[in-house]
Amino acid sequence: MRALMILAVLMITASCACADSVRGYSDFVLVKGGKFMMGSPESENWRSSDETQHEATVGDFWIARYEVTQSEYSELMHDNPSTFRGDRLPVENVTWLEAVRFCNAKSEAEGLTPVYRIEGAKVTWDMSADGYRLPTEAEWEYACRAGTTTPFNLEHSIGADEANFYGHYPYEIEENYFSQQKLSTKPGIYRGETVEVGSFTPNKLGLYDMHGNVGEWCWDIYAEYDSSLPTGPESGTRRVNRGGGWNDFAKNMRSAYRAAAPQERRLYNVGFRLARGAVGTGVVASEAVQEESRKGGKVLIAYFTWSGNTQGIAYEIQKQTGADIFEIVPEPAYSESYNTVLREAQRDQRRQARPKLRKHIANFADYDVIMLGYPNWWASIPMPIASFLEEYDFTGKTIMPFCSHGGGRFGQTLTAIAKLAPKAHIAEGLSVHYSGGGRLKEDIAKWLAAEK
Questions:
Q1: Are 233 and 365 contained in the same domain?
Q2: What is the pTM of this model?
């Protein structure tokens, strides 16, 4: 294994001189292909079950030094969907489908052969084409790691002076929140927004912002790893994005961490990075199908609360909708002590526990729309929400997430829901800062009106 890792390091090279000598590649790095161990070892702290470590092989490819900026995107697409505005800021709030359309537009503008043929939800990739494309998930991780086998490509725990993320929460803060002497990297600044691309030191390949700033769409459809499929399955309901964004905790920026979302979803912390060069020959087709969802039928508000913030949001939603309401209650309940519940929450998340629920819904099949509420705990869902999502069949149902948070908005909660309910349609969510204050009623009304 060690020999294999050393071989991978030796095979990865970046040549600026070579890049500058090839038309269109001046902002790209040539990555020499090879084998590497993709995913995370079972010993890696805060790993997810979908990161099964396996040997992967990638061919030579070019990858952009920087995430696509807003000036690049708006110049070609005549639109800028980003939440944060600035020419050198990465474009975000862009769907996967918009990202592949940009790839084609840039190819055409530079006289290259477009890579993708887009027919509704079905996208076909011509591997022989010389145009721009999204990296595969394997290529992205290979380039991010740059020969490293540690959780981050810096070979140490990443800090807020090395990447743009929720710097208050460095790696392993969860189990060291009250006593931080053991942390290799201490809490730092939380900027609360994107920063200009290239603001931090690049990895060993010369690639910037592979951790943080914005997550980056990859080609692949999300599924459990299958080493026989170098570009992922042909169909599914979610697309992969990697790297984590400006509001993510460090644990969700690890090289192996996998985020997922519907390909038509806009996310304020996800953008993309370009690649070029073929994985092989021929064509690869993939279709991220959106499950048919029922809207306009019976609605259920299901929520988990601890401090009461989420409960207050849930009851204001009920007041405005008249929907049925159900409280998700674990058995036993979490402690009423703030310090204790923090430990209990991170313990359950780390173990990916599925707490037993005290109450159940006998007529769940009658509901078409589930408004699902929860607090953002440690940048993810509380584990009673995971128990709830796994208990019922969400096929064809619409989930409308709403969460209370202390500054990180949804964190990676939408990814968690997307993975646990892959056959549900996930509508636009509502994030509420703590209890919502005097704007809560108005914010809920706008959210509900947008989803009609």
A1: no
A2: 0.91
> Are residue 342 and residue 196 in the same domain, yes or no?
no
Q: Is 312 found in the same domain as 210?
A: no
Q: Do residue 284 and residue 305 come from a single domain?
A: no
The answer to whether residue 314 is domain-embedded is yes
Domain assignment of residue 136, yes or no: yes
Query: Residue 205's domain spans which residues?
Result: 2-288
Question: How many independent structural domains does the chain possess?
Answer: 2
Same domain flag for 165 and 33: yes
pLDDT per residue rounded down to tens, the chain (452 residues): 333 333 333 333 333 333 333 445 679 999 999 999 999 999 999 999 999 999 999 999 999 999 999 999 999 999 999 999 999 999 999 999 999 999 999 999 999 999 999 998 899 999 999 999 999 999 999 999 999 999 999 989 999 999 999 999 999 999 999 889 999 999 999 999 999 999 999 999 999 999 999 999 999 999 999 988 778 888 999 999 999 999 999 999 999 999 999 999 999 999 999 999 866 666 777 877 765 555 568 999 999 999 999 999 999 999 999 999 999 999 999 999 999 999 999 899 989 999 999 999 999 999 999 999 999 999 999 999 999 999 999 999 999 999 999 999 999 999 999 999 999 999 999 999 999 999 999 999 999 999 87
8 Å CB contact between 313 and 402: yes
Identify whether residues 251 and 325 lie together within a single domain: no
